[in-house]
C-alpha cells in the first residue's frame, strides 16, 4: 500500500489552522464552563428546593443528552432564535461552555462537599460569616482538590470539540474531511487528524501533571 | 456570664438534650463529664450555636443567642471554641490560621493581627512554628495553635470539646498545661473532657451528664469523693 505524504504536506497549513481553532474553542469552553459551573454548583447546593431545582435540571439535561444533539439544537434552533444568526464557531463555543459547565459544577460540588465539616464549624466558631467561610476556608481547599478532575474534563472537552466539524466549524477534523473528500483517500487524512489530537491531549496531560506537582495536589 | 434555661436539642426523633439548666459565672472553669452519648458535646456546641437549639434559651453576657434578631457571627466571635480534631485550616500557615479571623472578622490591619498572633504563639510556646503549615505539626502542637487561634478573637468564654481525646498520651500534658494557664489568668471556660485529673485540679465545678440530663453538679472534690447519684457513682467507678 502506498502512503501519500504529499496530501499531508499540502494540507499541513490547514491542519495547523484547524488546531488553532480547536485549542481556542476548547479553552473558551473550559474557561466559561468553570465560571458558569461555579455558580451552578452553588445553586445546586442551595438548601431551598425551589432554588435548587432549576440547577438540578440544567445539569440533568446537559449531562443526559448527547453533545452532538446539543450542538445541533443550539446551532440550528436555539442560537438563531435568540441571536438572529450564528456561526459554527460561536455555536461550538456556546455548546461546549454550557456542556462543560454542567460537568464542572459537579466537580466543584464534589470538591466542596469533600471538605471536612469541622473546617466550616471552626471558621463559623471564630465569627466568620457564610461568605467569609466560603471565600477563605472552603473554596481554596475545594479548588485545589478539583484540579485533577478539571484536567480530565479539559481533555474530554478538547476531543469533543471535534464534533464541531459536523456543523462545518473549521477545526482539525474539518480539514481531515476536506482532504479525504478531495483525494478520495481515508488513511492519510484521518491518521493525521488522530495524531494531532493525540499530540494535543498528551501535551495537556503533561502540563496538568506539572501543574499538580507545583500546587502539591494530593 | 452564661445562662442556659430549659435547653432541648433533638436530631430527628432522637432527643439528645432533654432539659438542661446551667449557670456559669465569670472566671469560672466548668468541666463537663459523662459517658459517650450523654449529650455533653452537643451541649457545648449549643453554647455558640454551631448546633441549632430545638427549644430553650442560651444567654451569654446578657445577650440571648437563641434570639433570631441577634447577630450570631458577632456573638460567636466572643465565644472561642477548641475542637477534638483541631480543625486548623490546612491551606494556611500557623500564623495565617491565627490572623485570618482577626483580619476578616475583627477588621484589624495585617500588621496588628500578626503582632497579636506572634504574642499568642509565644504564649503557647510555638513562636518558632509561625511559618510552617499545620500538616508538619504534632497533634499537641496543632491543638495549641487551635487554642491560640481562638484566643486571637479575644473571647469572653472558651469552650473546649474533648481537646485531648485525639492526642497521643505523651502530648496531653502540653495542651492541659496551656489550658491550666488560661484558667489561672481568669478565663471563663467550659471543658468537655475525660481527663479527670484536670477536672479535679483546675475545675471550679464539675457537671455530670447522662442521657441528656444534668444528673449532678458540684465542686470537683465533692463530686469525685462523695457522688450523690447512683449513675454518677457507676460512671466514676469505671473511669477513676
Description:
The complex is a heterodimer of chains A (218) and B (240). Chain A has eight helices and no strands. With 218 residues, chain A is mainly α. The longest helix of chain A has 40 residues, at 5-44. Chain A is elongated and about 75 Å long. The termini of chain A are far apart. Chain B is built from nine helices and ten strands. Chain B has helices at residues 40-46, 72-77, 94-104, 110-123, 139-151, 169-184, 196-202, 220-225, 230-239; strands at residues 2-11, 14-24, 29-33, 55-60, 63-64, 79-82, 157-161, 188-192, 205-210, 213-218. In chain B, the strands form two sheets. A six-stranded mixed β-sheet of chain B has the order 6-7-8-3-9-10, with helices on both faces. In chain B, strands 2-1-4-5 form a four-stranded antiparallel β-sheet, covered by helices on one side. In chain B, helix 4 (110-123) packs across helix 5. Chain B starts with a strand and ends with a helix. The chains are: A mainly alpha (218), B alpha/beta (240). Chain A binds chain B through residues 116, 118-119, 121-129, 132, 136-137, 140-141, 144, and chain B through 48, 50, 73-81, 83, 85, 87-91, 100-101, 104-105, 146, 149-150, 153.
